[in-house]
């Protein structure tokens, strides 16, 4: 699979949480993968000393070696979780081929605009990789994509450019004005955001429609 717009996928992140990268650095053997029977690598808990955790032994020669401390990008997890969902209690494998083949591919992928590019590429890449490795029968993970776009909300702005809440605005002689100052208010539709005060208040919907779990 090739793409004209996807660059190399840099998966490492410098942070204390996330999925560990199972690599050890040995002064003799260089970069050594942690063998399967030593997986998973478990990150140090909060308060544990990272420098002590880093020190380990080389799986190849037994020398003192250091662990990789970067963790993986969360896209690595979101690229195959739907396959894990087909077999969530499997403690020996990511998923069994039989169960994955029974339910995959996903019938409908619904996502925002931002998912249509990066996540889709990464998920497809992992899916093609699993197919090449014989882990799954399917190559493409999603049968159909529905990009729902961005949901916008009505925005009220004062003359000075300040965002206003709906209840700070009143209609006067056919025009919208800021209630406190009487100044004209402009309206538009923008991407929903707390700072723009144009989101949907869940409480209002719950009181009007109720909620069922
Ligand atoms: Zn070694």
UniProtKB/TrEMBL annotation:
Asked if the Swiss-Prot or TrEMBL record annotates the protein with the keyword Transport, the reply is no
List the InterPro entries hit by this protein, alphabetically.
aa-tRNA-synth_Ia (IPR002300), Leu-tRNA-ligase (IPR002302), Rossmann-like_a/b/a_fold (IPR014729)
For the keyword Nucleotide-binding, the answer is yes
Q: Please provide the Gene Ontology terms (biological process) for this protein.
A: leucyl-tRNA aminoacylation; mitochondrial translation
Q: What is its main location?
A: mitochondrion
Q: Which GO terms describe its molecular function?
A: ATP binding; leucine-tRNA ligase activity
Which controlled-vocabulary keywords does the entry list?
Aminoacyl-tRNA synthetase, ATP-binding, Ligase, Nucleotide-binding, Protein biosynthesis
The source's domain of life comes to: Eukaryota
Give the enzyme's EC designation.
6.1.1.4
According to the entry, every stretch annotated as the Aminoacyl-tRNA synthetase class Ia domain falls at 6-156
Location in the cell: Mitochondrion
Q: What is an example of a Pfam family matching this protein?
A: tRNA-synt_1
Q: What class of enzyme is it?
A: ligase
The UniProt similarity line reads: Belongs to the class-I aminoacyl-tRNA synthetase family.
Full protein name: leucine--tRNA ligase
Q: Species name for this entry?
A: Ciona savignyi (Pacific transparent sea squirt)
């Amino acid at each position: 699979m090739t793409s004209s717009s996807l660059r190399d996928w840099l998966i490492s992140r410098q942070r204390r949480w996330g999925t560990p990268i199972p690599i050890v650095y040995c002064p003799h053997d260089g970069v050594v993968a942690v063998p399967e029977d030593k997986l998973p690598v478990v990150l140090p808990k909060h308060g544990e000393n990272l420098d002590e955790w880093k020190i380990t032994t080389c799986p190849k020669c037994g020398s003192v070696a250091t662990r990789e401390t970067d963790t993986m990008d969360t896209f690595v997890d979101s690229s195959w979780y739907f396959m894990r969902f087909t077999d969530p209690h499997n403690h020996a494998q990511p998923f069994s081929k039989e169960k994955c083949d029974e339910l995959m591919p996903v019938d409908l992928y619904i996502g925002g605009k931002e998912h249509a590019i990066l996540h889709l590429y990464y998920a497809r890449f992992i899916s093609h990789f699993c197919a090449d490795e014989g882990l799954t029968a399917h190559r493409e993970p999603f049968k159909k994509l529905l990009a729902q776009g961005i949901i916008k909300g009505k925005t009220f702005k004062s003359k000075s450019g300040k965002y206003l809440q709906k209840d700070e605005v009143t209609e006067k002689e056919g025009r919208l004005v800021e209630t406190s100052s009487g100044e004209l208010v402009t309206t538009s539709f923008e991407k929903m955001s707390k700072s723009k005060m144009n989101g949907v208040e869940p409480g209002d919907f719950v009181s009007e429609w109720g909620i069922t779990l």
